[in-house]
Design brief:
single chain, alpha+beta, two-stranded antiparallel sheet, LDL_receptor-like_sf
């Protein structure tokens, strides 16, 4: 291989790399507003028209404009909740009459009222993390995990009182 061929090959690689980089940049610019994957916690959010601001699902149609142009509160998006919302912003509870925003699934709170957003097969939540105490059944607003900050607080959160006698904050 001569020196000239090496230069031609390097130039071809540079042109190819520039083409691939341009294609990726164009794809990012052309992605539709309203959807944005949040890979840090594997959840989705709402991408504002500025294509830079991503807001959590529960901040869409909450009567507070979080996007500069207010597109998170537009009538076409918020007119007939939950049907007017894109499916990725909604989690359907096991009771078909109830729904919650997608970012309320697996947040430790009983948002559906029957814990289907925390324990149901559709929720597919990970087990309790280190900041949580696992007990089932849980009383009040939690489902199968209680925040450790509530351990030994003098209030029964677990049916078997394990949050008061066994759990350490």
């Amino acid at each position: 291989c001569t020196r000239r061929h090496g230069c031609v090959s390097a130039a071809a690689l540079l042109v190819l790399a520039a083409a691939v980089g341009s294609a990726v940049a164009l794809a990012l610019l052309l992605r539709p507003p309203g959807w944005y994957p949040d890979t840090s916690n594997n959840r989705t959010g709402f991408l504002c028209d500025d294509r830079a601001t991503c807001i959590p699902a529960s901040q869409v149609c909450d009567r507070v404009s979080n996007c500069r142009s207010g597109e998170d509160e537009q009538e076409k998006l918020c007119g007939d909740l939950p049907r007017s919302l894109p499916g990725y912003l909604v989690f359907r509870c096991s009771n078909p009459a109830y729904w919650v925003y997608a970012d309320q699934r697996c947040n430790g709170m009983n948002d559906c009222g029957d814990c289907s957003d925390e324990m149901g097969s559709l929720a597919a939540c990970p087990p309790c993390g280190s900041e949580w105490w696992s007990c089932s059944p849980v009383l009040y607003e939690y489902c199968s995990c209680v925040p450790r900050r509530l351990c030994r607080d003098g209030v029964q959160h677990c049916l078997g009182w394990s949050d008061e006698y066994i759990c350490r904050p």
